[in-house]
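Budget justification note: compute hours in this period were largely spent on complex prediction jobs such as the one shown. Inputs:
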Amino acid sequence: MSLMAKRWEELADIKRVLARRDWFPGTSGNLAIKIDDEPISFLVTASGKDKTKETNEDFLLVDSKGQPVGETHLKPSAETLLHVEIFNKTNAGCSLHVHTVDNNVISELYGDKGSITFKGQEIIKAYGLWDEDAEFTIPIIYNHAHIPTLAADFAKFVKADAGAILIRNHGITAWGRDALEAKKYLEASEFLFSYHLKLLSFKHVMV
Amino acid sequence: MSLMAKRWEELADIKRVLARRDWFPGTSGNLAIKIDDEPISFLVTASGKDKTKETNEDFLLVDSKGQPVGETHLKPSAETLLHVEIFNKTNAGCSLHVHTVDNNVISELYGDKGSITFKGQEIIKAYGLWDEDAEFTIPIIYNHAHIPTLAADFAKFVKADAGAILIRNHGITAWGRDALEAKKYLEASEFLFSYHLKLLSFKHVMV
Amino acid sequence: MSLMAKRWEELADIKRVLARRDWFPGTSGNLAIKIDDEPISFLVTASGKDKTKETNEDFLLVDSKGQPVGETHLKPSAETLLHVEIFNKTNAGCSLHVHTVDNNVISELYGDKGSITFKGQEIIKAYGLWDEDAEFTIPIIYNHAHIPTLAADFAKFVKADAGAILIRNHGITAWGRDALEAKKYLEASEFLFSYHLKLLSFKHVMV
Amino acid sequence: MSLMAKRWEELADIKRVLARRDWFPGTSGNLAIKIDDEPISFLVTASGKDKTKETNEDFLLVDSKGQPVGETHLKPSAETLLHVEIFNKTNAGCSLHVHTVDNNVISELYGDKGSITFKGQEIIKAYGLWDEDAEFTIPIIYNHAHIPTLAADFAKFVKADAGAILIRNHGITAWGRDALEAKKYLEASEFLFSYHLKLLSFKHVMV
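Corresponding output:
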């Protein structure tokens, strides 16, 4: 199997698992996996597809600017520029963007603060942090409708080979050195969002 | 594959995905997809079936009045008249009606106001609205037990080729130019309902 | 296919769908489908099995007293006596018992009142009630540990060929003339429980 | 089929069912099943794998100290020491550890009390307790980052061949004489956690 076919299958597998969780409502969400470093190219989800389906047009190859490589009638996802920032600024190999109810609610509740910090939760180890007092902070940025402006704002928080950023009332982007790490960051973040909201809902009951 | 077989498969695919989400409780819900324009005919779910099952009697062909085309022992869904309004008044190609807990709760909480309006959410782009301040309003109508009365009330809000209407304590009907657009409207609406309810539940906690 | 094989497959199909929803936590729940009327015999789930699995020992045939017909190492479900009441007192053909979080919460919140009544919800039509003001009442009985006592209490509310009874902090039993109707009663009830709880949770927010 | 292959399949089956419920977020969770008694050996999940996938490297054989038996490039799960305590101190045959939102919330809400006790719920019978007034207590221990310290603390509550322990802001470990009993303890506990939280959320509404 070629590298391209291998990466395609890795991304298709993530798409399948996340689609089963209904994490792509209304054709939202987009996924990317790096193919080459010099020059950078990556597979990204084609725009406007129903992600509960699997076809050989689910992904297309784009270059370091997010432009399609070679002739194709497929359009890269509108938010490909966010993945561009990640692959250009770090050694990340995979980047995942999804909308969930809980990540949207967290982004709105903590949007004015500009970030949310988690601490004292075992699942924080999924971020590679093994210290008992380890903290993990997820920035929350404004959801600029103009994608290049959004990408520029987003890029300010892309500082490591793995990470996660919330876009307010929009969704999360999580990335990692490979598909497994990106998925791990995504799932740990969603778990923390859901846990945080559920615990918060008992604040007035317990006091 | 004939046009009929193609449309049947599109509708069956939507039915399969929505059934997995348990969006057809108690045999509720009904789905329709247009086959012909002049005169109008469409496939609609047969009445009273368990939609977790797939058979060659899941759908039947009806005309512009919702009457079966040709001999059949199948009965069209009781609410076929709502789909009739959509196909007769617009260029919609597909129309979906489902009951979910969240769309019922929204319809009751905002029923007296007669509608609910969403704004400032990324998923609003699923309605084809790309402006940062775009709003999307979903009317909420009374659930008349008499279906022709319900259909007449419903028809007042059927003004575009794609849209969504809530029926109070009943469910949602979402439609679009084709199956993908109808499903996109449906999923975006359900996402917004769930998001809105979850955020609302934190109002008293955060203040 | 023999009648026995046909009924087995109907019950296995319901078991498969409900297991996917995780409605059999901790091997709880039991299902029954009638095979014969004179004398009464029915298939019932064998005790203590993991219902996410499918084997040819999932069900066994029992008589009108709930005793196994013929030699078998299988034990009928401990609550077979409840199904016995239903098949002996009515023309029901299928009876389903499941534990869900929402039916347990409803049974506790309304247990002292002894019942919960639903009105003004479209899904009430699943109970065969088409009137706009139709009401459907589900009795809530005490969960006697002694099964014959529980069955005697339960029997008082078994009055029609289709119905539903809640056992407090235990679960629901829903039945109907055939498998489809029993499942319809079950799903409509669970939908109403979830709807009722979600709406109730907004009472203090909206006032 | 050899005993090893039989046990492997039992554990793989549990992994498949729990993965479908998304009970292994961010590669968390680990599962163990005993192979031999004298000396003790057991299969345990390999570290860092995505548990939605099935491979022949999902589990590896370890000895009574949790060290791999024979040459392998696989690493046993970091928390293998907890399973070691269970297999060494009791006749348990299977031990399951998962992170869920609800078990984390319960562990935090009742962490200061050091345990949570359930009573008056039918599902308590899943613990083999058939008395009407039966109680089941789940201890909640501190989540020491140092695994040997955690294991020593954990061991204090490992007193029976089947049981369950919560680790605060971490997850639950449930075990039993065989795979079915361990899964039954796990599912009953999760059901009770979810039930308890949902009922608690209505406290302020009903009073």
